[in-house]
Amino acid sequence: MRHPGLSTGWLLPLLLLALAWSPLGAAEQKGTLVIALDSLGAQTMDPILETRAPHAHYQAPMYDALLGFNIEKGGLGPGVAERWELAKDGLSWTFHIRKGHRWHNGDPVTAHDVKFSLERTMSKESIASRAAALRRDVQRIEVIDDYTVRVYTKGVQVNFPEGLSRATFQEGQLMPKKYIESVGAEAFRKKPIGSGPWKFVKSVPGDFIEYEAVDYPHWRGTPHFKRMILLQVPEESTRVAMVRTGEAAIASISPDSIKEVQSAKLTLVSVPGTMQATYQMYGMYLPEQQKNPLTDKRVREALSLAIDRQQIIDHVMYGEASWPLPFATYRYSLDTDTERWEKWGREALRYDPVRAKQLLAEAGYPDGFELRFANTALPGTPFMVPIGLAVADFWSKIGIKVKYTHYEWGSFGPLLLREQKQLVGAVSMHRTVGRPVAEARFFGAFHSKGAHRLLGRDNACPDLCQAFDKIHREVVTEKDAVKRAEKTNRMIELVSDAWFVVPIIEGKGYWAVNPNKVGAFKPIPGRHEFGDVSERIPRPEQKAWPPVARRGG
Q1: What average pLDDT does the chain have?
Q2: Helices vs strands, H then E, count in the chain
Q3: CA 230, CA 198: separation in Å to the nearest integer?
Q4: More confidently predicted of 227 and 25
């Protein structure tokens, strides 16, 4: 007999709520997903103690971020915050937290956790990669109610939300306020809890991390596997062998292993838009460099025209790379005219050695000149070294006398600091990584206060340097989206026309997959790491791979 005060209109929501948080059942989650990685970084489960990108491999499974991804296109998307908006005066951002979400111990995720997490990431104890940026950008944080938090910024920060997404950095990762304050930081580090689709089980430093899937629906996707293990296996050939034998289902690889993966009838998953390989020039604005051939724009353009990018894509990258757009610009980038820059890339970055030689002759160097070239590879991209060798070879074919030096990244990185004396007047390999908003990379490369200062610095900022500083300031403070896009495209044009940093290819992330261990899945464009993908990876019986091995995202 139905209770007289309870209508069917009340029953349905209660039923749906009960179903939403009911266990999925052992039959729906089973097996162990094993992923072999080259590195687990610091392997700390406390988000404020990891300074490097591996956090997105091993912290992302158990921690949510305030903002997330556009799963299909790449770039920014909802996270624990379902929506967010900029105040009319541009001095604060308001984030609206999804309701019904919970920590692994059952406590609700609220705006108080968001405030606590951001302030903990900004704390003096934090060594997170973007802690200093948060301290620089944030004025204060206010909890409006349990599911609304407002962040007041120091000045207008139109791209502030992008930095709180794991599509970019780790500073937006959320931590449980009540739990940490109750047990203390040290106990939290030994027995961490998050709100992500995977719960922490065990960590053995330098060896592995083990997780257990949550057994309720999760907004990111409820895992199909019952357990997941991330193995640290530094040797790439060993990782490939493990996938071949089924000891691991998935392994990170470099292009060097692509042919082996394909011949073993494994599946190759390549993640588009994860990086650009570039070369860049240092200190050409300094008085002592004014006789350097590279100060002539015609010479700089000739160097680009001498490079056969398709040959590099086909033979160095085994076909698993893309034609680049301008510096730090990707097909999922915000505030950019992608169609315009696609056309620009095909024309401006074409292979035209005849025109290259003409430009050299017009600049007064018909027989070429001597060029110092520093080749290096940033961590995780060893293929940059053979790309650099190919570039040097193409330059030699138009008469450039390349004085080549190879640097391990550990010895090259310090050369970028302070006055860059060993790099001034030279060219080096470098890279960008996939980011939905380009301006931070532009600041680091070109601004007079940036890390690389390729156009000028405080005490030597010529017209081009001043023009960049001005347009960059306009980009980062423009609240109107249409006007901001116009200014962003002008900023890209200013830099592209100068030829001080030139993209060579757009690279991908590469994974060997055993199709008998996992079913077909798609990566997130621009996101090499699988920390935000693992919960959506099916078992092989749930979704078969297509007959031809998957190539690309």
Answers
A1: 91
A2: 17, 16
A3: 12
A4: 227
Helix or strand or coil: residue 66?
coil
Which residues of the chain does CATH 3.40.190.10 include? Answer: 31-47+196-266+516-553
pLDDT for position 7: 34
**145 near 94, Cβ under 8 Å?**
no
CB-CB contact of 161 with 148 (8 Å)? no
Tens of pLDDT, residues 13-44: 333 433 444 444 445 899 999 999 998 988 99
| DSSP alpha helix (H) spans, 363-436 | 384-396, 409-412
Q: How many CA atoms lie within 13 A of 102 on its CB side?
A: 12
The better pLDDT of the pair 483, 436 is held by 483
Helix residue ranges, H only, 223-270:
236-245, 258-263
- For residues 89 and 374, give the distance between their C-alpha atoms in angstroms, rounded to a whole number: 46
CATH class, range 63-180: alpha beta
- 343-375: burial string, b at 16+ Cβ within 10 Å, e else: ebbeebbeebeeebbebbeebebeebeebbbbb
pTM: 0.86
Q: Is 407 left (phi over 0), alpha (psi -120 to 50) or beta?
A: beta
Contact call for residues 471 and 490 (beta carbons, < 8 A): yes
DSSP 99-133: TT-B-TTSPBP-HHHHHHHHHHHHSTT---TTHHH
**CB contact at 8 A, 214 and 199:** yes
| pLDDT (0 to 100) of residue 168 | 67
CB atoms within 10 A of CB 152: 14
Burial of 143 from C-beta contacts in 10 A (0-12 / 13-18 / 19+)? middle
pLDDT > 50? residue 220 = yes
pLDDT digits (tens, 9 = 90+) for 43-87: 999 999 987 766 889 999 999 999 998 888 888 899 999 999 999
Question: Which CATH number applies to 271-507: 3.20.20.140, 3.10.105.10, 3.50.30.10, 3.90.550.10?
Answer: 3.10.105.10
Residue 341 has pLDDT above 60, yes or no: yes
Give the model's pLDDT for residue 438.
84
Q: What is the pLDDT of residue 82?
A: 96
Question: How do strand 370-375 and strand 401-406 relate by DSSP bridges?
Answer: parallel
Q: What's 31-47+196-266+516-553's CATH class? A: alpha beta
Of 446, 39, 436, the C-alpha closest to 251 is 39
Average pLDDT, stretch 432-460?
91
- Banded model confidence at residue 548, pLDDT cuts 50, 70, 90: low
**Domain ranges in the chain with CATH number 3.10.105.10:** 271-507
**Helix segments in 107-228, DSSP class H:** 111-122, 131-137, 177-183, 185-190
Using CA atoms of 384, 387, 393, 396 in order, give the dihedral in degrees to the nearest 10.
-70
